[in-house]
């Protein structure tokens, strides 16, 4: 009876650690993807804050840590190694307590974090020049709007409050139109063309810029 329960606990522990292992691998993969992505520098520049920009390294470190913990747990459970299991238990306890503390902090300061990020985004929007500008803020906003298919911080109306408003025109059907938002807000076929230095043309610039059609904006 005891052996049966012990065996069941052993296999449950192995399954749990495989999940833990996969979560760590996932975080590690996401962190490395962001770090190695061609858009990484451009998109992170939009946030214009060293703490936020170094967050990607924290994700990588956290993923590696969870990955290692899952590996230790699997080894300890499979080999029934008491030392590894004790070490695993201590680490999991620390992680659990840290998660509680972090969750409480996020809940308590959520509005402050949102305001902090929004302020940083709005500040860099004021440094935007044009679609063709090669400054880090212009390139960053162009990249983030193309890749994430978004427009401004909360919507295209944000651009009307920036220093850029009314300064850029775009030719549509032979007519020069003053833009209310950058054309990078418009949906495109292949946003990753920006990596090769090619500006991807909007799917339907008339519907996007003139009509603000949500299907193309």
Automatic annotation (TrEMBL):
The organism's place on the tree of life at top rank: Eukaryota
Pfam families the record matches: Tetraspanin (PF00335)
Predominant location category: membrane
Protein keywords: Membrane, Transmembrane, Transmembrane helix
Record InterPro entries: Tetraspanin/Peripherin, Tetraspanin_animals, Tetraspanin_CS, Tetraspanin_EC2_sf
TM helices/strands, residue ranges: 12-36, 56-78, 85-109
Membrane topology: Multi-pass membrane protein
Subcellular location: Membrane
Gene Ontology annotations for the cellular component aspect, listed alphabetically: plasma membrane
Keyword Transmembrane helix: yes
Membership in a protein family: Belongs to the tetraspanin (TM4SF) family.
Name of the protein in its database record: Tetraspanin
